[in-house]
Amino acid sequence: MIASISSCMSIKLEETEEMSTFTIKDTDKNPKHHGQFQVSLFKSDSKLLCSCCRFELSGQLCRHCFYVLRMESVEIYPKAMYQQDG
Ligand SMILES: [Zn+2]
């Protein structure tokens, strides 16, 4: 999945005091993934939300989020995004 980051492209960035909103264009050949998605990065708690809702549905970060994390060089990954065993 992480390799698929290469199909993502940031086409727009809106920044406010509380959050950055990236518009990500996914150029994947698979029409299921193809399209534009909005990833919001909340600065207060480094929480990420993507309009594809993958995290809400499966508990896994989507590549749009990974793309934003990589772009932003976020080193401390949001705790909430990692569900630890036990
Ligand atoms: Zn996504």
Outline:
It is built from 2 helices and 4 strands. With 86 residues, the protein is an alpha+beta fold.
Order of helices and strands: EEEEHH
Mean pLDDT: 83
Q: Helix fraction? A: 10-25%
Tally of discrete structural domains: 1
What ligands can be seen in this structure?
zinc ion
Please outline the major beta sheet.
4 strands, antiparallel
Radius of gyration: 13 Å
Beta-strand segment tally = 4
Tell me the overall shape. globular
- The number of helical elements comes to 2
Query: What is the strand content?
Result: 25-35%
* Distance N to C terminus: 25 Å
**Oligomer description:** single chain
Instruction: Report low-confidence residues grouped into runs of 5 or more.
Output: none
Structural class from helices and strands?
alpha+beta
- In the sheet with the most strands, the strands line up as 1-2-3-4
Please explain how this structure is put together.
The protein is of the alpha+beta class. It has one domain. The protein has two helices and four strands, in the order ββββαα. The chain has helices spanning 54-58, 63-72; strands at 8-15, 19-26, 35-42, 47-50. Strands 1-2-3-4 form a four-stranded antiparallel sheet, covered by helices on one side. The two termini are 25 Å apart. Bound molecules: zinc ion. Zinc ion binds at residues 37, 50, 52, 54, 62, 64-65.
